[in-house]
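As a warm-up, study this chain.
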Amino acid sequence: MQKKGGDNPTLDRIQERGTLLVGTTGDYRPLSYREPESGEYWGFGIDVAGEIARELNVSISFVPTSWPTLSADVRNPELFDFAIGGITITEARLETMNMSEGYLCNGKTILCRKGDAGTFRSLADLNKPEVRVMVNPGGLNEKFAREHLPKCHLIVYEKNEEIPGKVAAGEADVMITEITEAPWYVQNDARLSAPLLDSPFTNGQIGVLMRKGQDDLMKEIDSVIGRMKADGSLKALHEKYGLIYGY
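Now compare it with the structure written out below.
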């Protein structure tokens, strides 16, 4: 950890507070999920945040945010220090905010019912009026669907974590999701399939999102991610959650 001093205003503030405040949506298994009854958070991103807090030698507190309000919440210095959990590194985000180096490879893919796995093999198969595509509001899944599937029957559903169950039950045909999320649902619901898991529509990386001007915090986070890549702990997290290791 960097030493306290005038060049580290964000780290100094966190140290003085004694608690790292982390924004997360809590609706994105297995990266960030909040158990509705206990309020406990778990997931890949939650574990990474825990490593950052340990490096800073402070406690950690998770602050709820949402995909539609994520950018505004990150830019509000009163809410939290950074956001984590399924946040893709994009040029648009980098224009107004900072992002760490990537710690998880991702890409757009689909979930569908197992019996439909042979039906949906391309964007053309999805881009039809009779295909009901369900997405959560305000994030990159909705943006992707609106840009690439203008002819589909698009359904915007508020609760991301409930969409796989809606697809499995026949209330929608396809969910636009990520290769980081799809395997968990396939493993935990025998009715579902992710037929394009090995050939996603896009390729990218997930990172930590924070306000501009927090260069000291970003340097510290990048150091933690780099250490986790080097010592094998990041690979161990991929194995823990059944995700593809791409580093």
